[in-house]
Amino acid sequence: MVLQMESPAPSIKVENWLRGEPLTSFQPGKVYIVEFWATWCGPCVDGMPHLMQLQEKYRDSGVEIIGVAASEDAPTADEARSNLDAWLTEKFSNLNFRMAFDSTGEMKKLWMEPSFSFWIPTSFVVDRDGHIAFIGGPAKLDEVLPKVLNGSWRSSDEAKAADKERIAESEPIAREQALTKPINARFRAAVKTEDWKTARSAIEEGIALLPDNLNFRLAHANLVLHKMHDMWTGLPLMHQLVRDAIDRNSEDWMIAALEQLFQPNYDHSRFPSAERFAMGKELSEHILALNPPQGEGPKFWSYPAVARYYHESGNKDRAIELIELALTSLDGPEPIPDKLKQHLLPELLQALANYKDEKVCHGALCAAPQKNFLPKVSKRRP
Fold first, then answer.
1. Predicted confidence (pLDDT) per residue in 209-260, tens digit
2. How far is Cα 236 from Cα 272, in angstroms, rounded to an integer?
3. Is 36 helix (H, G, I), strand (E, B) or coil?
4. Is 124 helix (H, G, I), strand (E, B) or coil?
5. What angle do the packed helices 251-262 and 273-290 form, to 10 degrees?
6. Which of 213, 210, 240 shows the shortest CA–CA distance to 224?
7. What is the per-residue burial (b if ≥16 Cβ within 10 Å, else e) of 24-41?
């Protein structure tokens, strides 16, 4: 059953209420905003003050906001809950709306999955009669909420068109996820027991179904090259991945391919050096052509990977130049979330210190060169 505008609102089933009184049911006559978020999500955190403002502004109109932290990242549920509680105390001690915690996946099954919602933050507005009035990004709440409150939103052509468009855009992703979920489960189970044959069979089944799925392609390359060390199969596979990345002119695909070739945690000793560097050169040149140093595009995603290729190939000056450009782009015209910047800055500074073989600083943060360093490249962008 698809959860959409006019659907009855699902129930709230959470493990703990960290702030505010527990909510047992939606009360008729009130309007609720159910906001899915996480502490690691920059846009979610940046939007918290806005939610607090909305709660204050519309409290007397019967609006109640419920934050649902259902995606916290920690080894155990107890640690996730404890970390979240401490984080809220430090960052938002004056929080003025309810905050729920759930690590069971129940809230995602009730709300996110049936509504084809795949990203956070996602806001659900529940109307006065307990039906869904809006599903989408919280940036739209300023526009939508007054119309929900005066009863004009759900009957409007604008609302119907917006929900129809949302479903049309999200449904293909939902279908793909339905196909990938059982394959990923088999693959992960096989990898856990180091049953490489079964893992390879699962991932190749996935590629046959979804040849354009980058995650499947990367898992295949990583498995064959770095787990099974099958160069006979792996080299042609890697050549094809590089070719497809370049043909797509996709920075994400090219970065991913480059990481397979130069990620320092991988053992490349069996990989023919000439072929590895030839592929690295081709990928790096295409990335720099797509996102040139003099251009305004963000450099902090792709340039560290390209810098590693140049450093390993002996061009230290070029590697230093690229890392410096990546650092500069953190403060570029397009602002990035503070949490992301705080994550990227130490890694970029450390790479620069290692490449220069001297202490470097960026503002108050400094890094000293490491011996036998293995420079990191951040995970692909979300």
1. 999 999 999 999 999 999 999 999 999 999 999 999 999 999 999 999 999 9
2. 12
3. strand
4. strand
5. 150
6. 240
7. eebeeeebbbbbbbbbeb
